[in-house]
């Protein structure tokens, strides 16, 4: 990526959502040249499948599919199926964020029904501080679901999951979620401009 003609360098920033978020956390923890990492409703443990890097394997966070719930509309709610990464059997799935070279931004939808994004962001903050690192920036959005897209995208409260091939409920209330998408987009740009370009602010978005 650093060799791409459109990349300014000398370092890069990462932005990831959901599973892509924990992949970005892993990249920031193990790869050099990453100055800033922003994640949207991400887990602090490796999820879905084992992660292989050089001679190391990080197992995926285990789950209990029997804990799923079904909404009145017949959608699957998966928020309770994921096991706690802080419990001893799941420690190996935790991503070693403290190895990262740059700061973190966590965007958290507080009505996320895919997984416990607020809880995971708190784990990240406590882990980083326990290792003498700076506290990450965490922005909480009430009434906001899992799929926080760029501004003006319609709220995605449910869809057929690409891995499970089942209709999944993601949460979010239309007004709160839409406003969160506008603000989160601005916050992400400000974060990257600060840590990649050294600028403190960018031109604000308008509703």
TrEMBL record:
GO terms for MF: fatty acyl-CoA hydrolase activity
Domain BAAT/Acyl-CoA thioester hydrolase C-terminal intervals: 1-197
SUPFAM superfamilies found in the cross-reference section: alpha/beta-Hydrolases
GO biological processes: acyl-CoA metabolic process; fatty acid metabolic process
One Pfam family this sequence matches: BAAT_C
Top-level taxon of origin: Eukaryota
Stated name of the protein: BAAT/Acyl-CoA thioester hydrolase C-terminal domain-containing protein
Organism of provenance: Monodon monoceros
């Amino acid at each position: 990526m650093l060799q791409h003609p459109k990349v300014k360098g000398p370092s890069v920033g990462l932005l990831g959502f959901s599973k892509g978020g924990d992949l970005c956390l892993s990249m920031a923890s193990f790869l050099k040249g990453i100055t800033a990492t922003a994640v949207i409703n991400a887990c602090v443990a490796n999820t879905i499948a084992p992660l292989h890097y050089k001679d190391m394997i990080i197992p995926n966070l285990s789950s209990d599919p029997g804990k799923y719930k079904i909404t009145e509309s017949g959608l699957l709610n998966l928020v309770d199926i994921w096991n706690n990464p802080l419990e001893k059997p799941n420690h190996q799935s935790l991503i070693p964020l403290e190895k990262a070279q740059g700061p973190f931004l966590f965007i958290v939808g507080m009505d996320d029904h895919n997984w416990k994004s607020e809880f995971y962001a708190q784990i990240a903050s406590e882990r980083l501080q326990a290792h003498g690192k700076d506290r990450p920036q965490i922005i909480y959005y009430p009434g906001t679901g899992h799929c926080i897209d760029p501004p003006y995208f319609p709220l995605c409260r449910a869809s057929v999951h690409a891995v499970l091939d089942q209709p999944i409920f993601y949460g979010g209330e239309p007004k709160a979620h839409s406003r969160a998408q506008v603000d989160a987009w601005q916050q992400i740009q400000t974060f990257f401009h600060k840590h990649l370009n050294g600028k403190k602010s960018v031109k604000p978005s308008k509703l």
